[in-house]
Write a structure and sequence with these properties.
The complex is a heterodimer of chains A (about 160) and B (about 325). Chain A folds into two domains: about 100 residues, Rna Polymerase Sigma Factor, Chain: A, CATH 1.10.1740; about 50 residues, Arc Repressor Mutant, subunit A (Orthogonal Bundle), CATH 1.10.10. Chain A is built from eight helices and no strands. In chain A, helix 1 packs across helix 3 and helix 6 crosses helix 8. Chain B is α+β, with helices and mostly antiparallel strands and about 325 residues long. Helices cover about 35% and strands about 30% of the residues of chain B. In chain B, the strands form three sheets. In chain B, strands 1, 2, 3, 4, 5, 6, 7, 8, 9, 10, 11, 12 and 13 form a 13-stranded mixed β-sheet that branches. In chain B, strands 15-18-17 form a three-stranded mixed β-sheet, covered by helices on one side. In chain B, strand 12 and strand 13 form a beta hairpin. Chain B starts with 7 loop residues before the first helix and ends with a strand. Classes of the chains: A mainly alpha (about 160), B alpha+beta (about 325).
Chain lengths: ~160, ~325
Amino acid sequence: MSPPPVETIYKDHHSWLHGWLYQKVGCDQRAADLAQDTFVRLLQAQHKQTNFTPEQPRAYLRTVANGLVIDYFRRRSLENAYQEALANMPELTMMSEEERLLIRQTVEQLDALLDRLPKRVRAIFLLSQLEGLTYQQIAEHEGVSLRTVKRDMQRAYVHCLTLLW
Amino acid sequence: MQAATPPAKIIAEAADWLVKLKDKPLTASEKSQLKQWCAQSADHQRAWQAAQQLNQSFEQVPEKLGLSVLSRKQAQRRNLIKAISALLVIPTGSWLVYQHSPISSWTADYQTATGELREVMLADGSQLILNTRSAVNVWFDENQRLIELLEGEIQITTVSDLARPLSVRTEHGQIWALGTIFTVRLDSDYSQVAVQQDAVEIHTAATDKVQRITAGQQSRFSEVEIEPARISQPTTATAWTRQQLIVDNQPLAEVIAELSRYRKGWLRCDPAVAQLRLSGVFQLTDTNIALSNIAHTLPVKVVYRSAYWVTVTNNK
């Protein structure tokens, strides 16, 4: 006997999920897209593990969808910041479309990578990686010890490498 | 065989190498040590590849762009996530309202960028002004008018409507307007309300404490506690709506923190000069001018290491 097909779960819970997502993102189209993505995740899970079927479909869908919503807000705030930065940097508009796209994708990846880092660790890491400051300069700037800077850098690297694995 | 889950020890060692590499160029003997380290296993190699990939990614991003985007408003990202989780625990009453209200009652967010000031006329004729780096959701239905402050600071001039009370909700609680003009500011640990006309009532989110604040008063509240009302100068509290910052005998550190809300990147005050006191009126339209005025008034200088990294420090 095969597990209840995704179609059944879709039929029973899609409109509930759509409504649930709508309350979060406040946009009908966006909610529809996110609902779609949620079911795609379910399909992928079933694909990986043939007998996979959530015991409590709504709880499962809500957990997956919530992750997608948080991701959506992060991307949206990135989009705003990106456009704002672009507007302030005329030199970037001189670049080719491909170059800009590459930069854009890289920034998105880095943003996702750094998402869960504590504020200070993130700030220290960016000062080193982007501004190219020495650890001593960072320590002065942040008002922390040299050892703290190195420890935070190590922590950020561990975080990134773990996610990149 | 490569490990399916990230091997913690190897990753920690790779991170140690990266920390060392950023510190200063490796010596010849360190270089050969690193080579040996990489050669130990396929996992070691893979970790080091990831390390190089990470550094390359950062090199591809123009410094200014990367700094302004990746170091953007931590507060906003946190508040958004908090706001999302807050929706999961909406009290039953309002949950039902959300469920039954027609879809069109949700309107889009209003947001402002750094340094932006925005005026919005709401559907009922109330006026909303958003200060720099602010975000709200507006939700009106036949029973209530709710403004959700997700980040930043707003001023509201309400139009009275007895059938539909107006309130502002932050993560710390809810402020009910009793037909008024008032400002609400959201900081990470508390919300701040100042009333310019009539009165409002504060309700804390977690403890149901209630306090009335009247015109010329202000108060701060967390989700559990409301501080006693203090006197609030209406011109000072609303100066930002005229793009001004009015300072009356305040420590420099506070003034700099305030100015940093209006500019991108890092603006920091050296602890050595943090306690210097300052009074004056500053234009928020150009914080560079405000900073240079401060440097003329106090024994401090403004060091621009880049447009996104500015320190106010001792004049010596």
